[in-house]
Amino acid sequence: MSRGAIFHHFRDKESLFLATAEDDAAAMVETVARNGLVQVMRDLLDRAGSSDGDTAGWLGTQLEVSHRLRTDPAFAKRWAERSAAIAEATRERLERQREAGVLRLDVPVDMLAQFLELAYDGLVLHLATGRPPGELAGVLDVVEEAVRRH
To answer: Could you tell me the pTM of the whole model?
Structure first.
């Protein structure tokens, strides 16, 4: 799109950024609801390993969201709804997994959700700092195994 076409749809760069970040959050909610947060992490690794350059833009959005959450109270308030939707989709998926007998029983669902969110944040940071994806698929296997019932 030309610059004029973009700004025909978006008032300013801020509006464009928010639309992009909200689209990313909505896609995450869908993936989490269907396949879990570990799948979101696996998809991110696949993007990082591809040569299409898609990861840099996505990571840039994630880092900008993180920065704004710390520095912009109005943004943080607006973003809380999107963040809550991702967290809720994660908890609901874990509850379904527990009911299906797949999820471990000795750790509360909320704690497992926090564990997965922490792993996700760590993966984003790892990739954002330019470190290579390397053998992280194996690490995600460990993360997934940690929440499974044995």
So the answer is: 0.80
